[in-house]
Specification:
GO terms for molecular function: adenosylhomocysteine nucleosidase activity; methylthioadenosine nucleosidase activity. The chain is of the alpha/beta class. It has seven helices and ten strands. The termini are close together.
Length: about 210
């Protein structure tokens, strides 16, 4: 069974098509990612699912454009409810993303994530998924307070992780950093460097996976 790599855009896929894995383009957003991943896993089994792509790095992470983040945990960070100025997560609300057991949208990453990070010199930590890109330092700081050690922000990882969980397949998120999370400064994004970092992370994950097969 080949690993499955899921990316949001064709530009992200182009750097990965020559690797020994199945690559699909899911579209942008958590719902698109979950549906495409579930369909791909129903069509063909996979030994590992990798959510890959570029993303923003949280200020406290210390990550710069061109750096690489590898997930220790994939978190759907905007699941919950606002009560005035207070945000209540699914644990506080007593809700679950699964119908038969408690699950708050925090997905553990593949148990060999730390080895992938070690081989690439990447940072290992939580990666956050949101449906709307963060556009202020205040919101970035709020998310960093809620999720200590958060490295990067993307829009697909938790959807991919949810589909992988239901299929019983381990999952890993790999994000090449293109920009800082905060005010949107599109001209400052370093997309080629982020794509190169993403490829490095995915290639290392495939290498580790092959060694245990």
């Amino acid at each position: 069974m080949l690993p499955l790599i899921v990316v949001a855009t064709h530009a992200e896929a182009e750097r990965l098509l020559d690797l020994n894995a199945r690559v699909i383009v899911c579209g942008v957003g958590v719902v698109a990612a979950a549906l495409a991943t579930a369909r791909a896993l129903a069509q063909e089994k996979a030994g590992l699912v990798i959510s890959a792509g570029i993303g923003g790095a949280y200020p406290a992470s210390g990550l710069l454009p061109g750096d690489l983040a590898v997930s220790s945990e994939i978190i759907q960070a905007d699941l919950g409810a606002w009560d005035g100025d207070q945000f209540l997560d699914f644990g506080e609300l007593g809700l679950s993303i699964l119908p038969t057991s408690s699950h708050t949208g925090r997905f553990p990453a593949w148990h060999l994530a730390s080895e992938v990070a070690r081989r690439t010199g990447a940072r290992l930590g939580p990666t956050l998924t949101l449906s709307s890109v963060t556009g202020s330092l205040k919101t970035a700081a709020f998310l960093e307070t809620r999720f200590p050690g958060a490295l990067t922000e993307g829009m697909e990882g938790a959807g991919i992780a949810h589909a992988a969980l239901l299929a019983g397949v381990p999952v890993l998120e790999v994000r090449g950093v293109s920009n800082a999370v905060g005010p949107r400064d599109r001209p400052a994004w370093q997309i080629p460097q982020a794509l190169a970092a993403t490829r490095k992370g995915v290639a290392a994950a495939l290498e580790v996976w092959l060694e245990i097969c």
